[in-house]
Amino acid sequence: MAGLGGGDTCKGDFVLVSPAMMRRMLVCLLMLLVPALATYSQTAPAASAHPDATYQIGPGDVIKVVSFQHDEISGEFQVDSAGNITFPLLDTVHVAGLTPAQVASLLKKRLEANYYVSVQIEVTVSTYHSKPVTIIGEVGSPGTYYLKGKTTLTALIAEAGGLKPTAGRKIEVRRTVNVNGVPTEKIVTIPARELVGGKGGQLVLRSGDVVSVAARQLFFITGEIAKPGQYDLQDDETLMQAISQAGGLGKFASQKVEIHREKDGKKQVLKVNLGRIRQGKQPDVKVQANDVIIVKRRFF
């Protein structure tokens, strides 16, 4: 066997590699691999969501037809207000209400009847523009969006940039339905907390729906109260419930409370006696958005 590090080597010879040399070899290998990986990550196609195969094409949509054997019939075609496209060799073809796969089958059948022995056609929707929904209020990007298939309330709000911190506790979906042939507005209310893992992910939107995200409604409470500050106004919340929400009365609280509110541009001050409310001698006042509740201090 030849001596290590000298002379010619022959079959069966081996070379001992020190740990330091091994580390240098690994570093060199990584230096070669990193640029290649970076280049691949820049050129590799991004993963995209598959379109909804059940989507029904409608007026305003643009469909893309691809035939790899026949470029003369490939292209993009907009669906007109009557639900038709003007297609090479076939003139007018009605496609509204059909899925992309059904349109491909229809075109194939008509083309093979008169022009081609065998033709392969693929149809996709390149522009969705037939099923508008509107979202207004406290979302990142309110406006009009177009359904691309089965779309839930949660998915639409995510597409619109999500809820703002100023969003309220409830979301309304208004839609027009036919009741005995009469167009009637229906309102569906979804708690904001159910957007994830709740009703928001189950409510499928329809063309023409209007989603409204109202701003938070707040009231303010101060004075002799355990936790003064601003609070979200609950449904039909009363003064006694508001005091409870703020941790209850403070140690030196009196039974006298003032509610400051603004109505029609004018300031109002409501004076309430908590003792009389408990005795049933005075109604429990309904709290309104932006009310300022002041719990008075008792005098000894």
How would you describe this protein?
The chain is an alpha+beta fold and 300 residues long. The protein folds into 3 domains: 62-127, wza like fold (2-Layer Sandwich); 132-215, Outer membrane lipoprotein wza fold like (Roll), CATH 3.10.560.10; 218-297, Outer membrane lipoprotein wza fold like. The protein is built from 5 helices and 15 strands. The protein has helices at 19-43, 100-114, 153-159, 239-245, 274-278; strands at residues 62-66, 75-78, 84-87, 91-94, 122-127, 132-137, 143-146, 167-179, 182-191, 210-215, 218-223, 229-232, 253-263, 266-273, 292-297. Strands 7-6-10-8-9 form a 5-stranded mixed β-sheet, with helices on one face. Strands 12-11-15-13-14 form a 5-stranded mixed β-sheet. A 3-stranded antiparallel β-sheet has the order 2-1-5. A hairpin with a 2-residue loop joins strand 13 (253-263) and strand 14. It is rod-shaped and about 105 Å long. It starts with 18 loop residues before the first helix and ends with a strand. The relative contact order is 0.09. Mean pLDDT is 85; it is low at 1-15 and 26-50.
